[in-house]
Amino acid sequence: MAANKITFVFEVCAGCASHQWNTRHDEAKYLQYFSDCAAAIKAHIPNSECVMNKVPKPWYEKEIYCQLVPNEDEKDPYYQILPRIGAFDISTVHENTDILFYSKQMSTMWPHIPSVANQIKQFATDCKSMSAEALKTKY
User: Per residue in 105-118, pLDDT tens?
Assistant: First the structure.
């Protein structure tokens, strides 16, 4: 990860066929939302990176990230996430502070992509003038 690059972690429900009997999840819909959100974020923040179901190794102790798969490969800079059923969360870590931008599980609805992208664009601007704790409170 480059020092000036912002990484956004998406926790996205996966393996929907295994729990479809009681959730009616469409895995393709989750993947499309990830693709669309990532594209919208990159349109606003070209130096950003959007990763799905993986967390940069330095962030492993953050409360926001759980169910990480051990990874001893020094060439792989990420731990994989075992995503929660129904998850579609967007987060980052700034100055060692975890920031959650969106959670489908908490809101019980799909994100409005332009709104999330604009919120993240404002976050990128605010990073230049606000402390990490102030950013966490705001976002």
Answer: 999 999 999 999 99
Give how many domains the chain has, as a whole number.
1
> What is the per-residue DSSP string for 22-58?
HH---HHHHHHHHHHHHHHHHHH-TTEEEEESEEEGG
- Answer yes or no: is 96 within a domain: yes
Mark the ranges of the chain whose per-residue pLDDT is less than 50. Answer: 1
3-state DSSP assignment of residue 103: strand
Give the CB-side neighbour count of residue 60, counting CA atoms within 13 A. 10
pLDDT digits (tens, 9 = 90+) for 56-80: 999 999 989 989 999 999 999 999 9
Range of the domain at 71: 6-138
Residue 1 lies in a domain: no
